[in-house]
Write a structure and sequence with these properties.
Length: 563
């Protein structure tokens, strides 16, 4: 009798973990951040075969933050892999931070075997129910054949509208089981273009507004970097002489010395402009919920997410689309029109430059202060002077990082990283880890508050272990000073030290103990030399700078929650 087909022994089989790795590779993921657990180890085996780097950390929150940071730096989605139960709950903060920051990542969590569903298996929790409110997509993989298919589905959802995180849990028996390769769908080509240029009529109207405005300004926010819209943004503002302000990852779109780059005159511009264009920034607490914009100004909002446009404040024109496509289309639409507003535009730029210079001059004595304890303004001034064209700057902290937001100016796009609107402390080490791994030829500089560093600082050892040098600076005031200020304002100076005071920790010793470079600095004149020695050490470094605990950033003192 003729052989009717291959026997079962001849059929090529593949496990769920190897399907995960193949799906990640198809997506362009070359690194996962993880903390090991018995539920997920088959994914590691697949990653070895697919050439995907496995960076193992000491806490799952770090893995999720690192995946977030990787996405921000590379423009590709990050991936973190954690075990079930406490492994997944430990990662919740990192996922929530990515959700508020519009950062695309996939968190893969383990789960007890389907065969033990509702039996009380080890580390069994309702992960999908917990993750659904803080992700764009959350699901359980029900069968090994569906593993790669659901991974691709999760990644698609990461990029639907404004980016964000997705979550998949994979039960242990689904992950470990093997199925015939020909029965497992591994999508390889499934992405559609999402680069919408918005409504053409709205683009024409925006071009007309920009051409005729006498006092326009534009705020370039996170989505300018997310959409890699730097060139389009620069082309637009230069062609029309529009003064530009930048926030979040939009910082660095224009170089600090550019004549259209403004930082300190934003409040004045928002109060006196006749046209305000907001790109990729929601009207949340950072924007005073939109109330800081002049009620007389024409306000235009451009965003990837329809739900964000007009939230908390009316707008005169809303455009939903990709920042790069929208700004490029607007520049093209405006190119042939007479610039009726340009006659007064130079005077407007001069007015803003005078406000900018006055604010800088007022603050400069503190930036150059020789006071001891060290004025935080002096610390962030030294950091700003230290940064090069290739330095990626990360801020992880409360009050001390608020100081840096006024002074530190990245020299290029994609060189500023902060947690985003969730205000999460502890992102510094994982962001530095991701940035240095993804961009090994660039310098990474991270400013920590001492409270922020304490949350995830043990993964400094991971930086040493994987040879990921960076320059870390701890602005140490032995306090959670942003909260301390609020308590003093609410309850009086005699109750400002309740629940917010930390020990005097010499973090340089911590760095040296783990194999890195560390120094203590109490003299402001020693900040710059210490930073240079950290750079030259070629190691993960911590420069522990003792700053004045009784000095608060203006941003801290102006927070509405304390009033």
């Amino acid at each position: 009798m003729a052989n009717s087909g291959p026997s079962a022994d001849d059929t090529e089989l593949i496990s769920g973990g190897h399907l995960v790795a193949k799906a990640l590779r198809a997506e362009g993921v070359d690194t996962i951040f993880t903390l090991c657990g018995g539920h997920i180890i088959d994914i590691y085996d697949g990653c070895v075969d697919e050439g995907i780097s496995v960076i193992d950390v000491r806490h799952e929150q770090v893995a999720a933050h690192a995946a977030d940071g990787y996405a921000r730096i590379t423009g590709r989605p990050g991936c973190a892999v954690v075990t079930a139960g406490p492994g997944t709950t430990d990662a919740v903060t990192g996922v929530a931070n990515a959700f508020r920051a519009e950062s695309p990542l996939l968190l893969i969590g383990g789960q007890g075997a389907l065969a033990q569903h509702k039996m009380g298996s080890l580390q069994d929790l309702p992960h999908v129910d917990m993750m659904s409110p803080i992700t764009k997509f959350a699901a359980t993989v029900p069968h090994t054949e569906r593993v790669a298919d659901l991974v691709s589905m999760a990644f698609r959802e990461c990029h639907h509208g404004a980016p964000g995180p997705s979550f998949l849990e994979i039960p242990r028996d689904v992950l470990d089981a093997k199925v015939p390769v020909d029965r497992a769908r591994v999508p390889a080509s499934y992405r559609a273009s999402t680069r919408s240029a918005g409504d053409p009529e709205a683009i024409e109207r925006l071009a007309d507004l920009l051409v005729h405005a006498e006092k326009p300004c534009i705020l370039l926010g996170n989505q300018v970097w997310t959409c890699r819209a730097t060139d389009s943004a620069v082309e637009l503002v230069r062609a029309l002489d529009v003064p530009a302000f930048m926030n979040g990852a939009g910082r660095g779109t224009l170089a600090p010395q550019d004549p259209l780059h403004f930082q300190l005159a934003r409040r004045h511009a928002f109060a006196h402009a006749d046209l305000i264009v907001i790109v990729g920034t929601p009207f949340d607490f950072r924007m005073g919920y939109g109330r800081r914009l002049s009620p007389q100004a024409t306000v235009v909002q451009i965003d990837l997410d329809y739900r964000t446009v007009g939230r908390n404040r009316d707008v005169d024109l809303g455009i939903v689309g990709d920042a790069d496509a929208v700004l490029r289309a607007t520049a093209q639409a405006a190119s042939g029109r007479p610039a009726n507003g340009s006659a007064t535009r130079k005077e407007w730029l001069r007015e803003l430059r005078e406000v900018e210079q006055a604010a800088y001059d007022k603050r400069l004595p503190r930036q150059l202060s020789d006071a001891s304890p060290i004025d935080p303004y002096r610390l962030v001034h030294e950091i700003n002077e230290f940064l090069t064209e290739d330095s990626i700057y990360i801020g992880d902290g409360g009050d001390v990082v608020t100081f840096s937001g006024q002074v530190v100016q990245p020299k290029a796009p994609g060189h500023w990283m902060d947690p985003g609107p969730l205000g999460t402390l502890g992102v510094g080490v994982p962001f530095a880890m991701a940035a240095k791994h993804a961009r090994p030829d660039q310098e990474v500089v991270c400013l920590f508050g001492d409270g922020a560093f304490s949350l995830t600082g043990w993964d400094f050892e991971t930086m040493v272990r994987f040879d990921l040098p960076f320059v870390g600076i701890v602005g140490n005031n032995s306090s959670m000073n942003q909260i301390r200020y609020g308590q003093a304002q609410k309850y009086g100076a005699d109750r400002d030290r309740v629940g917010n005071t930390l020990g005097d920790v010499p973090y340089s010793e911590f760095a040296r103990m783990l194999g890195g470079h560390g120094e203590e600095v109490r003299d402001p004149a020693e900040i710059g030399p210490a930073l240079l020695r950290a750079r030259e050490s070629g190691k993960p470094s911590l420069i522990n700078v003792w700053i004045d605990p009784d000095v608060y950033a203006p941003g801290t003192m102006n927070q509405t929650m304390y009033k």
